[in-house]
Amino acid sequence: MLEIRWHGRGGQGAVTSVELLALSAIEEGKYAQGFPSFGPERRGAPVTAFNRVNDKQIKIRSGIYHPDVVVVLDESLVALVDVAEGLKPTGILLVNTTKSLADLKKIIRFEGKIATCDATGIAWKELGVPITNTTMLGALLKVSGIVKLASLNAPLEERFGRIAPKNQAAAKRAYEEVKIN
Amino acid sequence: MSEKKWPETWQEVNPGCMVFRPGSAAAYHTGSWRAMRPIWDNAKCIKCGVCYIYCPEGCVTEDADGFFEANLDYCKGCGICAHECWPAAIKMVNEEE
Amino acid sequence: MGKRVGMEVAIAAAEAAALCKFDVASVYPITPQSHVAEHLSDIVNDGRVDASFMTVESEHSALSSAMGASATGARVVTATSSQGLLFMGEVMPIASAMRLPIVMIIANRAVSGPINIWNDHSDIMYMRDTGWISFFAENGQEVVDMTIQAFRVGEDRRVMLPVNVNMDGFQLTHMIEPILFPDQEEVDRFLPEYVPYATLHPDRPVSMGTLGMPEIYTEAQKAKDVAIVNSIKVVKEVWKEWGKLFGRKYEPIQSYRTRDADVALVTMGSMGETAEIAVDALRKQGVKAGLLKIKLWRPFPFAELKKAVKGIRVLAVTDRACSFGGPGGPVCSEIRSALYEESVRPAIVNYLIGLGGRDVQVEDFMEMVRRAAKGKLSEPYEFYGVRG
Question: ipTM of the predicted structure?
Answer without folding.
Answer: 0.90
